[in-house]
Design goal:
It contains 8 helices and 4 strands. The longest helix has 22 residues, at 41-62. The chain has helices at 2-15, 17-35, 41-62, 69-74, 81-89, 106-113, 130-134, 147-155; strands spanning 94-98, 118-122, 138-142, 159-163. 51% of the residues lie in helices and 11% in strands.
């Protein structure tokens, strides 16, 4: 089935040497911080397997029948929406910092559909630029190369999304978020 096929494709990508080293370094750092130890190889493999599976389901959902999107968007609960609107009324833009979750592509699409100008910072943003064609108020920006665009977005009172678990540059260097 398509889910199994896509999971295998994503596993191949995640296990590629360029990605594997960054993922392993991040998981070691997370385990040391949260559990006081390095992860076992089987734990790293389990996380990578889950990442691939979630990404496969996300991809299938993103390319599902577009007529279903209004139903999906209506079912999303946005408890933070009043706080976001209030913050934007102050006129300085808003930074949303969150780790990846479920369908991380649906989040910006949802906010753009609600009328927000949205800027999402992704590692390898070029892979996600097809969303910009569908949603003109959405910009996909690359980690490590987006500071000027982010400052402009905030000055223009727009929403900026930082995936704070994507804490490595495409060349494998890591960065700290909020000192951690």
């Amino acid at each position: 089935n398509s889910e199994r096929f896509l999971t295998q494709c994503y596993l191949y990508s995640l296990r590629d040497l360029r990605n594997r080293e960054g993922i392993s370094a991040n998981l070691r750092r997370i385990f040391r911080h949260g559990r006081g130890r390095d992860p076992a190889p089987s734990e790293i493999d389990a996380v990578v397997q889950e990442m691939a599976s979630v990404q496969a389901l996300t991809t299938i959902e993103m390319f599902a029948d577009p007529s279903q999107w209004p139903t999906r968007l209506a079912a999303i609960e946005l408890d933070f929406l009043p706080a976001l609107q209030e913050s934007l009324r102050r006129g300085r833009g808003v930074i949303l910092a969150t780790p990846h979750f479920g369908n991380h592509h649906l989040f910006p699409v949802t906010l753009v559909s609600l009328g927000f100008r949205f800027n999402a910072v992704y590692n390898f943003a070029s892979r996600h630029r097809w969303l910009e064609k569908l949603y003109p108020d959405l910009r996909m920006l690359d980690v490590g190369y987006s500071a000027v665009d982010l400052l402009k977005a905030l000055a223009g009172n727009e929403v900026v999304l930082l995936m704070d678990d994507v804490d490595y540059f495409p060349d494998g260097r890591t960065m700290d978020f909020f000192g951690a």
